[in-house]
From TrEMBL:
Keyword Disulfide bond: no
Subunit record text: Interacts with CDK2.
Gene3D superfamilies found in the cross-reference section: Cullin Repeats
Organism (species): Leptonychotes weddellii (Weddell seal)
The protein's role, per its UniProt record: Cell cycle associated protein capable of promoting cell proliferation through the activation of CDK2 at the G1/S phase transition.
Stated name of the protein: CDK2-associated and cullin domain-containing protein 1
Similarity comment: Belongs to the cullin family.
InterPro entries: CACUL1, Cullin_N, Cullin_repeat-like_dom_sf
Alphabetized UniProt keyword annotations: Cell cycle
GO terms of molecular function: protein kinase binding; ubiquitin protein ligase binding
Region (Disordered): 215-246
Domain Cullin N-terminal: 14-170
GO biological process: G1/S transition of mitotic cell cycle; ubiquitin-dependent protein catabolic process
Amino acid sequence: MNVITIEDYKSTYWPKLDGAIDQLLTQSPGDYIPISYEQIYSCVYKCVCQQHSEQMYSDLIKKITNHLERVSKELQASPPDLYIERFNIALGQYMGALQSIVPLFIYMNKFYIETKLNRDLKDDLIKLFTEHVAEKHIYSLMPLLLEAQSTPFQVTPSTMANIVKGLYTLRPEWVQMAPTLFSKFIPNILPPAVESELSEYAAEDQKLQRELIQNGFTRGDQSRKRAGDELAYNSSSACASSRGYR
């Protein structure tokens, strides 16, 4: 293998990695990314073998940090009615990118990060999102999530589930900010239910059913009735499940 000087790394090898990372960080689900994974994998391997792991790791962290700071600023400029959905997109896009970025840098992870830093690349990159995006937005995001939870159909269940599960992955202690909300999507996080609370649970179920009817699930429309029955059943099942661990 030819010697790769630091000048070679900066002028030839890192620019290839930089461009590939850019594309991976900004891709949307289903996008075709015109990069050669084999070529990028080979670049990383050669740089690790030539003792450029420390510089490459530093460049990677700086690159992704700059990207996440831009993402955070874009979220800050989002209007409230789009804030939840845009946070969901940013979270999903980043986690999707990591599924490609982490394997491409597997040699750097194995022979530098794990052995010399005693850490893991994926953990480090998830931590970057926590620090540069989630931490900066959690106190704006959580009230909107709680409001959306109390307003049926304001946010799709899949979006709500993705965000809540994502926040729990980033920082489990955020459960304490809204334990009831998290318990709807994360099992076993609440203490067991007690008998004195059963009447409160029944009242919550009745309130939900009234809200469903008020939002169009009337008895006169059989197709909506079936949809309403299904939603009520799923909601009751979710409540029953969470109550078992309150």
